[in-house]
Design a protein that fits this description.
Layout (H helix, E strand, L loop, with lengths): L2 H12 L8 H13 L3 H6 L7 H15 L4 H5 L1 E4 L2 E4 L12 H11 L6 E5 L5 H7 L5 E6 L2 H15 L4 E4 L10 E6 L6 H5 L22 H9 L4 E10 L5 H10 L3 E7 L5 E8 L2
Parallel strand pairs: 3-4, 3-6, 4-5, 6-7
Antiparallel strand pairs: 1-2, 7-9, 8-9
Helix pairs in contact: 1-2, 1-4, 2-4, 6-7
The structure holds glutamine.
């Protein structure tokens, strides 16, 4: 079968799925991933012959998409802050919104020589690893999930040469150090918000998305209360949350003794990050 004929059929299948915004683009990603045919070769060699087992591989990927599996879980890859991260069903897929948190952290950290950085609820490690890829720092990545940490380790290996400490910990339970900055994108969706996320988002680990409390701030509350003990004098806490939670998060920071509290908007102009500074 010619690649181009397979392409037409697979695109027709993909187009039946409302999750797929751009079927030709997804085809080219799937073909590169499952057949090893580069995007360029797909364009310049449309007549290339593919075997029936190759066609089955393409079909298998397309069927996974029909079943709402995110493209990133099929290719096991996601680009974040210009870096290629491994992802699995045990980790959240890094989102462009979260790049706001990285930018905010980098902006502060450029003035501190080799700061101590903690990425709490790290998942893939995206936030901490993106920071470490841009400045020299001492990095700790922590998560409650052993399964997620297998992916963290892979990313730390491929992107920062394993130059970090990885800890399996329920928030600060196993963390004793003090940091210049704590960055975190913890679970913060309410059950109600979760009930209306897309089928695709439902394929991501619920434990990484939902904080089991009416306002979704259960885990963020714990982080805000426990952080001061783990920050150096003048240290920063930067938290990603939903735009409907930023005002309350700012209040919680203030109540916990944080100063210079600010809310930062993401690229979509929505309030996304809340930050404060702790003076011991
Ligand atoms: N922003 C993510 C979403 O809406 C949620 C991320 C999180 O809970 N940490 O899917």
């Amino acid at each position: 079968m010619r690649l181009n004929d397979a392409k037409k059929e697979i695109i027709a299948i993909l187009s039946n799925n409302s999750d797929v915004e751009n079927a030709p683009r997804e085809f080219s990603i799937i073909a590169e991933f499952s057949l090893g045919i580069s995007k360029l070769d797909q364009i310049i060699k449309p007549d290339i012959e593919i075997s029936s087992s190759d066609y089955q591989k393409l079909l298998e990927c397309a069927n996974q998409r029909l079943n709402h599996t995110p493209l990133s879980y099929i290719t096991q890859k996601r680009e974040f802050f210009g870096l290629d991260f491994y992802v699995s069903e045990n980790t959240l897929i890094p989102r462009p919104d979260t790049e706001t948190l990285v930018e905010e952290a980098l902006n502060e950290l450029k003035n501190i020589p080799c700061p101590d950085v903690l990425d709490l609820c790290t998942g893939t490690g995206a936030i901490g690893i993106a920071i470490k890829s841009n400045i020299s720092c001492t990095l700790t990545l922590s998560d409650i999930s052993e399964e997620a940490l297998k992916i963290t380790k892979k990313n730390a290996h491929s992107l920062i040469n394993d130059d970090c400490t990885i800890i399996c910990s329920d928030l600060f339970a196993k963390i004793s150090k003090k940091f210049d900055i704590i960055v975190t994108n913890p679970p913060y969706l309410t059950q109600e918000w979760y009930s209306i996320v897309t089928d695709e988002v439902k394929k991501e680990p619920k434990s990484a998305l939902v904080s089991d409390n009416n306002d979704g701030l259960d885990i963020i509350r714990k982080i805000i209360i426990q952080s001061p003990k783990h920050l150096k004098n003048g240290g920063f806490l930067m938290i990603e949350c939903d735009y409907r939670q930023t005002a309350l998060c700012a209040k919680l920071l203030s109540k916990a003794g944080f100063k210079e509290i600010k809310i930062v908007k993401d690229l979509a102009n929505k309030e996304r990050v809340v930050r404060g500074t702790y003076y011991a």
